[in-house]
Amino acid sequence: MDFFAKNIWITGASSGIGKAVAIEISKAKTNLILSGRNESKLKEVAAQCKKNGSTAQVILFDLGDEKSVVSAAEAVLSKKIKIDALYHFGGISQRSFVNETPLDIDRKIFEVNFFGTVALTKAVLSRMAENGGGQIAVTSSIVGKFGFPYRSAYAASKHALHGFFESLRAENKKNNIRVSVIIPGRIKTDISLNAIDKNGQPHSKMDEGQEKGKSAETTAKIICRKLKKEQKEILVGGTELLMVYIRRFIPSLYYYMSSRVKPL
Ligand SMILES: NC(=O)c1ccc[n+]([C@@H]2O[C@H](COP(=O)([O-])OP(=O)(O)OC[C@H]3O[C@@H](n4cnc5c(N)ncnc54)[C@H](OP(=O)(O)O)[C@@H]3O)[C@@H](O)[C@H]2O)c1
């Protein structure tokens, strides 16, 4: 995937990893559609992308509101824009224990992380296939590979993305749809500040793990390099990525370690 002169739709582009990826890709003189809910932040990102020589338009939607996602997709597709790539970074995290979290909070996390992402993908997929194919990237997490305390619905929503997008990839090889699943470890963004608690309120704390994480800019460079290669799984982060291999190859050690994790 060469980014030059392509039409690339990026969700979660107002902040953190999605914003850094948008700015990194914009250096390749491409055409960006930047999405999220925060219009002023998205306009700032669009301005930076334009300075780098790309075009950038802002399309607002709330991933938790299917209608807003579908109507945004209809608006884009009605302009006969050929979407070459759709990169999903939009998402929210969680900070609450299973036994204190009402089901509506679990559903809210799934609506944003899973159903919103799936709704946009479904809206774009057929047109992408008709146009000869394209690239879709979805952002999971290392906790899309194993469970983690205080993140039950978040981890579950990320596991669900793996199942959905692996199936989509298998079904659409014939349509030249290439799928990448991005699996970040700890990246220094506002994710823990924006994570929701048992009441659906922002956690509003920069967690220690996040604070020490890889910068969004370095992360974006790594992701873009691997997106260009159309790598199917893109792991990015620090030593915490080891846990993916521990879970797979030494599960007993993972069970022990995960039960000892401090919740925050
Ligand atoms: N940072 C990490 O350590 C880490 C680790 C693993 C996975 N991830 C994943 O990486 C992705 C990006 O997260 P980040 O770290 O960059 O966090 P972030 O700085 O909080 O950015 C989250 C992005 O998601 C968008 N978003 C959240 N809720 C939305 C909604 N209801 N509708 C539309 N957009 C919404 C936000 O845009 P608006 O506020 O404008 O809506 C924002 O652009 C997420 O999927 C996250 O789960 C992050």
UniProtKB/TrEMBL annotation:
Key words of the record: Oxidoreductase
A cellular component term, taken from the record's GO annotations: membrane
GO molecular function: oxidoreductase activity
One of the Pfam families matching this protein, by short name: adh_short
Family, similarity comment: Belongs to the short-chain dehydrogenases/reductases (SDR) family.
Name of the protein in question: SDR family NAD(P)-dependent oxidoreductase
